[in-house]
Amino acid sequence: MVADSQPGHIDQIKQTNAGAVYRLIDQLGPVSRIDLSRLAQLAPASITKIVREMLEAHLVQETEIQEPGSRGRPAVGLVVETEAWHYLSLRISRGEIYLALRDLSSKLVVEDKLPLELVAAEPLEVRITALIDRFFIDHQQKLERLTAIAITMPGIIDTENGIVHRMPFYEDVKEMPLGEVLKNHTGVPVYIQHDISAWTMTEALFGASRGARDVIQVVIDHNVGAGVITDGRLLHAGSSSLVEIGHTQVDPYGKRCYCGNHGCLETIASVDSVLELAQLRLGQSMSSTLHGQPLTVESLCAAAQQGDLLAKDIITGVGINVGRIIAIMVNLFNPQKILIGSPLSQASDVLFPAIADSIRQQSLPAYSKHIVVESTQFTNQGTMAGAALVKDAMYNGSLLIRLLQG
Ligand SMILES: [Zn+2]
């Protein structure tokens, strides 16, 4: 996050406690102060103080809760107040940008998708700033109080300082101080995260890995990468690092990869290389139902689901290779769940068993025995990933404290 100053020790405790209480109210509300004290393991006096500040700031409100079976006076419960608090969620991908307003419950207020030229005379951060200004003018009728900006994008990103070192597709980007530029322009904190890491957080907060403490999420798309949640926290959350499984060698005699090595997983399992392989092998398989129709991810997956031998064989091959690398990760992290985020999940009946079998054959049986391989709930599109960054900043207290201080 890009913010003004680091809090001192006492402030840090206050921030952590306030964040924990806000999280409980958000996830369990309506919830009473007594239950909050028990669940947060904080003294009733501390709960009273934190809740009073949140009430005054209009971040929570009181509501009546009638205990089931009770005829007495209803108890007072607390729920979060979210509608008057907005944030801007941005997503940058190849040649396009999404801009969205969401409220603190993550609900979408408005979303625009606009072209973003890969190369232009003006620097990318200048163009993004102009698009944000335009967006706020277009939607000023809908805008409530702006609390933050969240940005998700591919690239090598210093998330702590909001600096984008490099980006795929946008080749002019070098050490872009996007966080600083937008914070100075708008006056609100800016959260930037790599899109695969942010997607992993999204699934953990709102999606398929909700409630799981240890998760491996593998993304197979134009690139192949992963996000790891270990003991409830995203691995590498505050650094430029990623879980680069796409650049682990699976074939020493394989194709040269743009990273400089040979036979990386990405040269075999990325969507583009899978389609390339399918095209090559179609020439040797006259009976395939893929003949006579355009070869796309959709047609390949549909053919595999319908039992076409060539299509099944290609998807199974992806599963075996991806599973081999996940097996090593299973031995490192012993996850409860493996999530696959990929357009190839359209052939999940073929892909997921191939991955699961490969993991079972190549990792510690005690770890892999209960492994579940399933699809992510969200896709790698839209601005929900930014919602995860803001939710995380409310729960860890960093954004919450700023809103409490007005
Ligand atoms: Zn590579």
From TrEMBL:
Kindly give the SUPFAM superfamilies that the UniProt entry links to this protein: Actin-like ATPase domain (SSF53067), Winged helix' DNA-binding domain (SSF46785)
| CDD domains named in the record | ASKHA_ATPase_ROK_Mlc (cd24074)
Which Pfam families did the record assign?
A: ROK
InterPro entries, per the entry: ATPase_NBD, ROK, WH-like_DNA-bd_sf, WH_DNA-bd_sf
Extract the PANTHER family matched here.
Answer: BIFUNCTIONAL UDP-N-ACETYLGLUCOSAMINE 2-EPIMERASE_N-ACETYLMANNOSAMINE KINASE (PTHR18964:SF149), ROK (REPRESSOR, ORF, KINASE) FAMILY (PTHR18964)
Q: Which family does it belong to?
A: Belongs to the ROK (NagC/XylR) family.
Q: What is this protein called?
A: ROK family transcriptional regulator
